[in-house]
Amino acid sequence: METLAQTLALPTAKQTKFADMVERASTKAPGLTGYKGTYESVIEAQFTRISASNYTKRETLKRLLLHLYNQTCYTIIKTPDYLDVLANMSAFGGKMVRDIESWEKKGFVAEDQLTSLIQHCFAKYPVPQFLEPAFAGDKLLYMVWYVQLGAGKSVMELSSFPVVFTKKMAHYFRLTPPEYKVEQAIRRAQALGYGATIENAEAIAWSVLSAGFEDEAFWDKVIKFVAKVKQSVPLDELQIVLYFLKQLKENQPDLTMKGRTWDALLRQAQEWNIEMNRRSHFENYLEWKPADIGNFTIKINNVTYAIVQLVNSEELYVEGYEMSHCVADYDQDCATGEIAIFSLRKYAEKKAMERIATIEVDIIAKEVTQAKGKYNEYTTDEADKLIKEWADREGLTIEYSPEYYNEAPLPQQAQHQGIAQANPRPVDLDNYRYVPPRYRQDTKITENELMLILRLSLLILFALVRACH
């Protein structure tokens, strides 16, 4: 049995060409080494980014590669993004709390293996899970924090921490859910430490406050102010207030939050936001010839429904503002005659007109390509029936479906030319070159990118197979 076990065991790195390849790569001089169609060039590129004098980092990267090979973690050592993580880990070779070679693979999922390896090397004490992707990014400071926490330092002892934390904030920082980014974790903990509800703390975390920590003395007071608001603070309202305060601060350097109430501040911010948006759209005012598609009116019981074409940028702006989406961004497409935008409205007796849906029509293809309700929600059954009846009358086909919305939603809230929209999006803080799927939103890969990935994977796989023989 012992002989059979030895026969079936994979050879160690020292017995294979893989070890020779890593050894050659580790001695390469620093410089620009690109992908040359071989797996060895991928490994070389990692070492040539390391200074020749940084022996510890080069040696650590070599040890990581060889040990992962011996542990049959082939997905990690053949994937460029994972190799970047190993290179970042190597920068802290002198700070590891356990020997690399004492780590043993558990499980077959590469991301779990990599997480386990990071914890093994640096986490003598528990480290919040949201910090794990730091080694996949390019922010060295966040990696330092992981290493420091893993070695036993407190949150309040972390190097160059951008916010003055209380013990309560430090406690909440450690309890941050894994899906949060580091900047968001700081803001969330800050808000909770000041007494914010979970809901309002989450809004603060996902707001533009997480874009940076400049002028922190002022924004800390803003967070403290919002944290004391008892009612729910929706993200879109918070964003408008924050943009408004930023504009005020630029004109009033000594601006304070003293004597303010949330309701009054929100009202001022909304009025400012409406005016800024009107100015923006008036400056670029467009109008266009209506498409040769008729409007539609039908009366059901005592309620009148109408589908009306929008023919200038002001009408698009009002539609977008009332419906809380940015259909106003389609003015150029309407002006060039590519599409037409219609508004489905409801007129009930003794009630104000209600907008039910915004509809996009491809003029050339004679297709209804999108229809969305308020906040970009799906249209109701009632609206769908009316749109279909109108489309049939005008000879239009309907080409949208719930599945389509998952692939191509109506325009999202955005910020243009530094001016806040009615419902601005949370700022995108995805600065990582690689983030495991459990920490990121899904992204599309183009066909060319997919083919390149497959080709590279095959080349690396062939190289590994040759190295084993």
TrEMBL record:
It comes from the Bacteria. This is PcfJ-like protein. InterPro entries: PcfJ. Pfam families: PcfJ. It comes from Flavobacterium suaedae.
